[in-house]
Write a structure and sequence with these properties.
Blueprint (H helix, E strand, L loop, with lengths): L5 H29 L3 H15 L1
Helix pairs in contact: 1-2
InterPro entries: DUF892_YciF-like (IPR010287), Ferritin-like (IPR012347), Ferritin-like_SF (IPR009078), YciF (IPR047114)
């Protein structure tokens, strides 16, 4: 993809961030399930809730 303007760069970066958020939404529940610490599990679950919003 050729980034010929700042607008193109901005849109490309937004797409990357959107993709990362979607990957995180899939990964966080698995990470929380695998967490051995109750505190870590709670933090990951809270992060999932915030990310979903």
């Amino acid at each position: 993809m050729s980034l010929d303007s700042l607008h193109d760069l901005y849109v490309d970066e937004l797409k990357d961030l959107y993709n990362a958020e979607n990957q995180l939404l899939k990964a966080l529940p698995r990470m929380a399930k695998a967490a051995s610490s109750a505190e870590l599990k709670a933090a990951l679950t809270e992060h999932l809730t915030v990310t979903q919003k």
